Amino acid sequence: MDILPDDLDDLKYAKSLLENPGLAAKITNVLGAPIEQGFDLLPKGWSEIVSSSTQKALLAAVNSAILTMSKKKKGDSANTLHKLLVAGSGAAGGFLGLPALPVELSVSTAIMLRSIADIARSEAQPISDPEVKVACIEVFALGGPGKDDDAVETGYFAIRSALAKAVSDAARYIAQKGLTEKSAPAIVKLIAQISSRFGIQVSEKIAAQAVPVIGAAGGAIVNTLFIDHFQSMARGHFIVLRLEKKYGHDVIRQTYGMIS
To answer: What distance in Å separates the CA atoms of residue 75 and residue 70, rounded to the nearest whole number?
Structure first.
């Protein structure tokens, strides 16, 4: 099936978003300092705090961020508003440091998931659809390639393939019982798989905030980069899903792979 020129342009744009450098590179470019310095300054046990906080933040966000949104599409997504809200959360987190992470991350993640759902809606995705709800959560696994990543394992479609069964099981569960039971095995399994990837981005975020020159103002900047990164992932993801509905998954995946 031939893809219309406008749709092909959209797919090219989506790939440019999804395959751009990861969060660490973006933070380094803006702040002018490698975040590796921050990792050396984090206290003992920080990785366990990140792991626990990440999974709890995703579980908490799932029920609160999407269910309160109206089903009607309302034009462009409110990206700037969500950036401002997350920046405020990041300022507090930057001032208080790692001890504030569980609370700050829960707030930021809920705002980010709402922003992701807003972007889905702007791409003509019905957010009342269980598959779309799960696709919103899936965005947190799309961190973008890092400098040491194997493109074969971390490319957009490779990540979706790795999550496919968990995504399908979670969507089926939500269709049957809704999102009222966050501890349901299908939801927990999906969150566990996604949080392992999302945790990498969270680790990079807190490492950047640990650099002494960052502080509260830097925390706001880092959090703005954090949500901007996932807004880009969401935009690319839902463009691809919109085109898959029109042309089929295989056609879009093959064409995506041919775009240089």
So the answer is: 13
End-to-end CA distance of the chain: 20
Please tell me the distance from the alpha carbon of residue 81 to that of residue 162, in angstroms, as a whole number: 33
In this prediction the pTM is: 0.86
User: What is the rounded distance in angstroms from the CA atom of residue 164 to the CA atom of residue 96?
Assistant: 38
Question: CA-to-CA distance for 49 and 148, rounded, in angstroms?
Answer: 24
3-state secondary structure of 51: helix
The gap from C-alpha 151 to its chain's centroid, in whole angstroms, comes to 18
pLDDT one-digit tens code per residue, 149-177: 544 456 899 999 999 999 999 999 988 88
pLDDT above 90: percentage of residues in the chain: 37
Query: In 3D, which of 239, 219, 216 has the Cα closest to residue 227?
Result: 219
Angle at 133 between CA 132 and CA 136, to 5 degrees: 85
CA–CA gap between residue 232 and residue 174 (Å, rounded)? 26
187 — phi, psi (to 5°)? -70, -45
- Work out the pLDDT band at 59, boundaries 50, 70, 90: confident
